[in-house]
Design a protein that fits this description.
Blueprint: H1 3-18, H2 28-40, H3 44-55, E1 61-65, E2 69-70, E3 75-76, H4 78-95, E4 98-103, H5 108-117, E5 121-123, H6 126-131, E6 135-140, H7 145-158, E7 163-167, H8 194-202, E8 206-211, H9 223-229, E9 254-257, H10 261-276, H11 285-297, E10 310-311, E11 314-315, H12 316-339, H13 341-350
Parallel strand pairs: 1-4, 1-7, 4-6, 5-6, 7-8, 8-9
Antiparallel strand pairs: 2-3, 10-11
InterPro entries: GLUCM_C
Pfam family, one: GLUCM-like_C
Protein name: DUF4392 domain-containing protein
């Protein structure tokens, strides 16, 4: 190995470990990450960031699929949409890409408001999305299964992507049923974006999924692992009677699992900042704070249904602390890469990282 590879491996390890901190304490994130690491074979976040770097170029279209609608209030949750918009910001700044948020109707107002917060122009029309710079597109995807194929075909024709990223988007099980974390049927509430993700994958488009439980789009990659170790994921594990369990069926080629999906998006931003040697690609804490407030003020809810400045039941302060730790890991890794050159050489000579 060379010094660059050692540094990349270890900052990747840092980011993976940070986003799998377990403040709730019940261990699901650790269960998921074990399966993820065995599947990915190396730090997941950095591997996904490198894949994006290898594929994306100026003006390339990137789909970001998100938006999980929760019971009983039938509002979309803050997890997913905030990270999606911050990820869109990074894609524009790092690559000059054209991100397109694909979401249910319940996220429409939040995308509008958050686009201003992250500094991007918002467009709904295909021509504007393709032609306008410093912009993010918004497409509201159907909840009607019989219309999903047609809309997916239209979007792919008008805006052929180079990558698709699903973050905290609902994923149907093998019976075509969408579930909450505890197995309630929410099929009628969710956008049927599985078909779009599947079509992208079949077309050879780079596909990445970010999830924190197993009922999210793309998490079918870990289906056997989830069914064995995660509650409600096994067949007959749901409470709706479909007998299919909560585990999503659609499998992504590349996955990031995390305690909260939002953290996965932020770690992907941080990993990209490291690869580009540009820590400024990581957004400021003040922007993060404003984004969380804005999403909540648009009626989005946390995991427990509260209209609160929280994501997945974790308050704003924790998210701000974690973002800053990610930033400092990137900043210090880049700074010490030159300062610690002799240490890199001696560590490499010991061949620990080649085992």
């Amino acid at each position: 190995m060379i010094a660059e590879e050692v540094a990349e491996l270890n900052i990747g390890e840092d980011l993976d470990q940070l986003i799998n901190l377990d403040p709730r304490g019940y261990g699901v994130c650790r269960i998921l990450y074990k399966g993820t690491r065995e599947y990915m074979g190396e730090p997941a976040v950095m591997k996904c960031a490198k894949k994006l770097q290898n594929v994306l170029r100026q003006e390339d279209i990137v789909y970001i699929i998100t938006g999980f609608v929760l019971l009983p209030h039938r509002h979309a949750e803050t997890d997913g949409i905030i990270g999606a918009m911050l990820l869109a910001r990074m894609l524009v700044r790092a690559y000059g890409a054209k991100p397109v948020i694909i979401c249910p109707e319940e996220c429409k107002n939040a995308v509008q408001s958050l686009s201003s917060v992250v500094g991007l122009h918002l467009y709904d029309g295909y021509m504007e999305i393709k032609s306008m710079p410093i912009a993010v597109g918004r497409i509201i995807f159907t909840k009607e299964e019989e219309k999903a194929e047609e809309q997916a075909a239209e979007i792919l024709h008008e805006l052929p992507p180079k990558a698709v990223i699903a973050i905290e988007a609902p994923g149907a099980n093998s019976k075509g049923v969408y579930h909450t974390a505890k197995g309630l049927d929410v099929t009628e509430l969710e956008a049927k974006t599985d078909v779009l993700f599947r079509r992208c994958k079949e077309a050879g488009v780079l596909n990445i999924a970010i999830g924190d439980l197993g009922n999210e789009l793309g998490m079918g990659t870990l289906k056997k692992h989830l069914q064995k170790y995660v509650p409600y994921m096994e067949e007959n594990g749901c409470v709706c009677g479909c007998q299919g369990g909560c585990s999503a069926s659609e499998a992504a080629d590349y996955i990031i699992t995390t305690t909260i999906s939002h953290w996965g998006a932020e770690a992907l931003i941080a990993a990209t900042a490291w690869l580009f040697k540009q820590p400024e690609l990581i957004h400021a804490g003040d922007l993060e704070k404003e984004a969380i407030k804005t999403a909540s003020n648009c009626g989005m809810v946390d995991m427990y249904g509260w209209v609160d400045y929280a994501i997945d039941g974790i308050g704003m302060e924790f998210h701000l602390y974690l973002l800053e730790i990610m930033r400092q890991c990137v900043v210090n890794s880049l700074r010490h890469f030159t300062m610690c050159g002799e240490w890199f050489e001696k560590v490499i000579d010991k061949k620990f990282f080649e085992i």
